[in-house]
Specification:
- The complex is a heterodimer of chains A (about 325) and B (about 300).
- Chain A has 19 helices and no strands.
- With about 325 residues, chain A is an all-alpha fold.
- Chain A has three domains: about 30 residues, no CATH class; about 35 residues, no CATH class; about 240 residues, MetI-like fold (Orthogonal Bundle), CATH 1.10.3720.10.
- The two termini of chain A are about 40 Å apart.
- Chain B folds into two domains: about 55 residues, no CATH class; about 220 residues, Orthogonal Bundle (MetI-like fold), CATH 1.10.3720.
- Chain B has 16 helices and no strands.
- In chain B, helix 2 crosses helix 16 and helix 10 crosses helix 11.
- Classes of the chains: A mainly alpha (about 325), B mainly alpha (about 300).
Chain lengths: ~325, ~300
């Protein structure tokens, strides 16, 4: 035992340190590995201040928060804000808008990269495939502000190229940017344009790890292209699809702030308003901090419920599936 | 990963008539999608060199009939866009360094098996991935730290991304233990080991995340928009939105005495100029993120 202690003080091998863990006691352990613990400090400070402190800030949702009184000085009002929110017309509108966009993104927006990946996977000419990939990854790295600017410039009724094109095809003026009925299709198509190219990467990686021998065996057994796709390709990326689907469900209600905020204007607001944009407008815009926090809390809680439920459903279907 | 994607199929069963039709179909469809992805950018570049007249009268084009640089001259003369780009680049440089330091320094101890409490800390970090305080409480925290209208509000709140952190932790865990033990034997404490041995050998992953963080800060609209209200401090994305979507192209014209602003061309030129840095960096991004995806697996 003494020999072990001596070598540990000299900074000996890890085995000694692990064996002595139980015998050393906490403070000695920290002193021995003091640099490791010191290196933890900035990270712990960051998470404490910018991740956990805001969680405490949720208390505001149950208060009548006044900035100069602070969190501790403002009076508690219980569930008042929540009652007000659930009975206001805003609630159904927000829920409807957010869910509609969420469903569209989960179906069309989710499937598109998979189809693209499958098509890319079937491409014979590798150079062409690489060129296409280089092209379709680009929009992902560009900011939403650029995407929104491009959309605006192309669709503006003030001479935008796509506006003129649509006018020629449909023989009337189509105001995509301001028409509430066209808002959702526009958002979904915009999202596909920006993200589905890059989204193929995960699926391509999964597809590349499929055993070539399986394909060859299937061909020998007489399977045509579709049968191979159905019986070999799809099952092999099944677990990847499920995981990504669960992750997407969790962010169902978030519908990115940037994209929606940038494309919202006074004319399509009724359809465009989603939770995050509403929280910004009411909270930071109008200063109703408590009310906005209550809405945001509702959104976060529903998000967790969704991701846990989706995970449970996936586990029921296949015990190996799921994230946790 | 590129090697895997380039692997040639040895099997020759795709030469059935149906197979050939599909190949042509695939060729055309993917080609169209690729074109539609790039077409807006090509239009922007071409159009930014076109005269206002040509933009308002002609349809879609990539090469302007009349080449002119008046839009770019306007942008450089008024300077709003360029200045915001310089400011944002500065924030990106400092911010990337800060974020890298925070993330890598935090990841190393958490990757060591002899660290007590690491599993507790990791569980606490995972929790933040599922639940957060939300926009308003975070805003209040930032405000009470006095970071409103400070560029630090663009750097600190997002200093460590849990997802990135786990990728780096995984990467450090796979580091050969013999090297670390050898360093200990030679009398290095953990900090020295980290700085002198682990970091230099982690150059690829550091490069990857340098790019990610820098691009992230450059592209950030949300934080810049809500935390910085002083228009002289606006970053590139906020200015871009002002110019292209709020038609604020004429902000400085009265001062400069410019009468005829080629609005449409200026909008396109602004988009071109603000996208340009990202496109320059793009080849490096492409090289690194393919490696990056393999380093951190989804179920990791």
């Amino acid at each position: 035992m003494e020999a072990n202690s001596v070598t540990s003080k000299l900074g000996g091998t890890r085995e000694n340190e692990i064996i002595d863990k139980k015998r050393i006691g906490l403070w000695k352990h920290v002193r021995l590995n003091k640099w490791l613990y010191l290196m933890l400090v900035p990270g712990i400070l960051y998470f404490a201040i910018f991740r956990y402190a805001p969680m405490w800030g949720i208390v505001i949702a149950f208060q009548n928060y006044v900035p100069h009184l602070g969190m501790f000085g403002s009076e508690m009002v219980g569930f008042m804000w929540f009652k007000e929110f659930f009975t206001s017309p805003d609630f159904m509108r927000l829920l409807h808008n957010t869910l509609a966009l969420g469903v569209l993104n989960i179906t069309i927006g989710f499937v598109f990269p998979i189809i693209l990946a499958l098509l890319l996977n079937e491409m014979r000419i590798q150079i062409y495939k690489r060129c296409i990939q280089t092209a379709i990854y680009v929009p992902h790295f560009v900011s939403w502000t650029i995407v929104a600017s491009l959309t605006t410039v192309l669709l503006t009724s003030n001479g935008g190229f796509l506006f003129e094109l649509l006018q020629r095809i449909f023989d009337r003026e189509i105001h995509v940017l301001t028409d509430p009925n066209l808002f959702r299709p526009m958002i979904v198509i915009q999202g596909i344009w920006k993200s589905s190219g890059f989204g193929t990467i995960i699926y391509l990686a999964a597809l590349a790890s499929v055993d070539v021998e399986q394909y060859e065996a299937a061909i020998i057994d007489g399977a045509n292209r579709f049968k191979r796709l159905w019986h070999i390709t799809l099952p092999s990326i099944q677990s990847t699809i499920v995981i990504l689907l669960i992750l997407n469900c969790g962010s169902f209600l978030t519908t990115g702030f940037d994209q929606i905020f940038l494309m919202t204007n006074s004319l399509n607001r009724t359809v465009a308003d989603v939770f995050d944009v509403f929280v910004y407008n009411i909270g930071i815009g109008q200063g109703m901090f408590s009310y906005a926090t209550a809405v945001g809390l509702f959104r976060s809680v529903v998000g967790i419920i969704l991701i846990v439920s989706a995970n449970l459903v996936a586990k029921k279907a296949d015990p190996e599936a799921g994230i946790f | 990963m590129i090697v895997i994607l380039l692997r040639k199929r040895k099997t020759d069963i795709f030469n059935t008539p149906a197979g050939r039709v599909f190949d042509v179909f695939n060729f055309v469809i993917m080609g169209m999608f690729g074109f539609m992805t790039l077409a807006p950018f090509l239009y922007v570049i071409g159009g930014s060199f076109a005269s206002e007249l040509e933009l308002t009268t002609r349809g879609f084009f990539i090469i302007p009939r009349e080449f002119t640089t008046e839009a770019y001259r306007f942008i450089f003369q008024t300077g709003t866009v360029i200045n915001s780009m310089i400011r944002t680049a500065g924030v990106a440089v400092v911010g990337t360094i800060v974020q890298l330091m925070f993330t890598f320094t935090f990841a190393y101890p958490l990757s060591r098996p002899n660290l007590r409490g690491s599993s507790v800390i990791i569980k606490l970090i995972i929790f933040t991935m599922l639940f957060s305080g939300g926009m308003i409480p975070t805003y209040i925290v930032v405000r009470s730290l006095g970071l409103l209208n400070s560029y630090w509000s663009l750097i600190l709140p997002g200093a460590i991304s849990p997802f990135n952190l786990f990728v780096i932790i995984n990467n450090f865990r796979r580091f050969p233990t013999e090297l670390i033990e050898a360093a200990h034997m030679d009398g290095c404490n953990e900090l020295n080991t980290f700085i002198r041995i682990v970091l230099p050998l982690s150059k690829p992953i550091i490069a990857t995340f340098t790019l990610f963080y820098a691009v992230g800060i450059w592209n950030d609209f949300f934080s810049a928009f809500i935390y910085i209200t002083d228009s002289s401090m606006w970053t590139v994305q906020v200015v871009l939105r002002q110019v292209t979507m709020l038609s604020a192209t004429t902000i400085d014209t009265v001062v400069e005495g410019i009468l005829d602003v080629p609005e449409a061309a200026v909008k396109l030129a602004t988009i071109a100029v603000t996208t340009f840095p990202i496109l320059c960096v793009y080849p490096f991004l492409q090289k690194h993120f393919s490696k990056g995806m393999m380093i951190g697996s989804i179920k990791g």
